[in-house]
Amino acid sequence: MLEKRLYHEQLFALTLTYPPSMDAIMDALQPGAFVHILPSPSESRQLFLRRPLSIAGLDREKRTVLLIVRVVGQGTEQLREVQPGTVLDVYVPYTHGFPIHNVKNGARALLVGGGVGVAPLLWLAETLHAQGARVTALIGFRESRDVFGLRTFEQWGDVHLVTEDGLSGKPGRVTEYVRDFSYDVLLSCGPEPMLKALAHITAGDSRPHYASLEARMACASGVCRACVVAVRSDVHADTGHHMVSTDDAARIQHRRVCHDGPVFSLSELVWRAP
Ligand SMILES: Cc1cc2nc3c(=O)[nH]c(=O)nc-3n(C[C@H](O)[C@H](O)[C@H](O)COP(=O)(O)OP(=O)(O)OC[C@H]3O[C@@H](n4cnc5c(N)ncnc54)[C@H](O)[C@@H]3O)c2cc1C
Ligand code: FES
Questions:
Q1: What is the Cα–Cα distance from 116 to 274, expressed in whole angstroms?
Q2: Residue 224 marked as a ligand binder
Q3: Residue 85's domain spans which residues?
Q4: Rounded to the nearest whole angstrom, what is the distance from the C-alpha of residue 258 to the centroid of ligand 2?
Q5: Which segments in the chain show pLDDT lower than 50?
Q6: ipTM reported for the complex surpasses 0.90
Q7: Residue 62 belongs to a domain with what CATH number?
Q8: How many domains does the chain have?
Q9: Which atom of ligand 2 is nearest to the CA of 219?
């Protein structure tokens, strides 16, 4: 670990550095990718399971990775206590990130993020801007003290802030404002209620809509199936378009968030009942 920055007790950013031997792996990653990290240094190993964290920034020249972490339990709390200079045990899974190849030069990309779900959108905004897309970020946080990333988004496009406490930006939730924006493609990451609301708002809309999911994970290598989500098999995974189904009722399949995702077409996801 190179650097740690505390926003407040429950939110911090880490900059990690990786060795040249990992260049090929890191070069192949796309926004939406995540690392699977043991929260405590290898020698202490207090927790058995790794924790998935999105890559919020990747500088391939400096060989650094930025992570933004919200403390919600033991693992993230332990990670907060790790000091710069510590060697961490990090696994980089093979993932399917945001389909940036579908975002053409000049396309209007609306990035919708909630809470720490905003983290992967920072790297996504930079990447889409570099390939000529017009980026608008609509980001929401519960409290204004949780806000991060504004200046980064401003570098790559427009940014609109929403907070539930109403102390910064517009008051309320991001999903209340989505309809105010024109876009060609929508890419999102955030808590399940936000993604569910987005799916509801965009239902029947033929434009592509993507969501990065935060499932509970164990192996993060596609083996244990701890992270499966239900998807409709009659929706094209890449475009989100409905295909002709031989069945009236859509067939349900299961996909591993760690290996087949974490990014899915919003319209293919089948949400659990509340
Ligand atoms: C692909 C992916 C990317 C992620 N990116 C980030 C990120 O960039 N920054 C970040 O702060 N977090 C991110 N998360 C969530 C993060 O992995 C969890 O918050 C973390 O594993 C919790 O570990 P813990 O030991 O602190 O909490 P635990 O003790 O494991 O759990 C504490 C509480 O948090 C809940 N919880 C734990 N994990 C999740 C989860 N995945 N989704 C919803 N609730 C959960 C539990 O139900 C429990 O109530 C990501 C998750 C995934 C799957
Ligand atoms: S976490 Fe094991 S298959 Fe996804």
A1: 22
A2: yes
A3: 3-91
A4: 6
A5: 243-246, 248
A6: yes
A7: 2.40.30.10
A8: 1
A9: 2
